[in-house]
Amino acid sequence: MATLRHRALQEKDRWKESSDASRRLRPLPFSLVENEDKQIVLDRILHELTPLLPAVAPLKVVAIGVNAVTRLLERHQASVVVLAMNPSVQPAAWHIMSMASMFAVPICVLATTSQELGDAMGLKAASAVALASIPDNTVCFHCSVPRVEAINR
Q1: Of the four, 50, 61, 131, 149, which is 20 to 30 A from 74 by CA?
Q2: In what order do the strands lie in the sheet with 107-110?
Q3: What is the pLDDT along the chain (153 residues), one digit of tens a residue?
Q4: Strands, DSSP E only, in 65-148?
Q5: Which parts of the sequence belong to the Ribosomal protein eL8/eL30/eS12/Gadd45 domain (predicted)?
């Protein structure tokens, strides 16, 4: 049985050998999110996800970067993937789109650069971001427990 990476490489080789190989980039299997919708997604990441990153870091529910997102997809833990797509990123991120469609994981492909997605995440650059679901029995103490002031007697 072939691994997921091996299957993605086979798909890439099949495309290279096809008659349509004269084109530099393959057509995307997903439509790009552009203009206003792209800004809405980036703003929601900036204002809703980025403030939670330090609190959920011990739970490892956010994967940032192509390799980390690939690992999360391989483990069947990803619940949604956000991908910054421009021509320089497409060859390196093609397997993420293949795996997301294979495992029926929702994917949001933004027509933006990795620098813009990185800015929304509070980093220099991020080509891909994946979110995993938090199990019901997991308690995030940083998120759910309010701060208790000391009692002076």
Answers
A1: 50
A2: 62-64, 128-132, 78-84, 107-110
A3: 577 788 878 877 776 666 554 455 566 777 888 889 999 999 999 988 888 888 888 888 999 999 999 999 999 999 999 999 887 788 888 889 989 989 999 999 999 999 999 999 989 999 999 999 876 666 555 554 344 454 554
A4: 78-84, 107-110, 128-132
A5: 53-135
- CATH homologous superfamily of 50-132: Ribosomal protein L30/S12 (3.30.1330.30)
Q: How many CA atoms lie within 13 A of 50 on its CB side?
A: 15
Q: pTM here?
A: 0.71
For 36-43, the CB contacts below 8 A with 24+ separation are 38/110, 38/111, 38/112, 41/82, 41/108, 41/110, 42/110, 42/112, 42/116, 42/117, 42/120, 43/120
Nearest one of 18, 82, 95 to 46, comparing CA atoms: 82
Neighbouring-strand partners of residue 62:
131
Indicate the domain borders of the chain.
Answer: 50-132
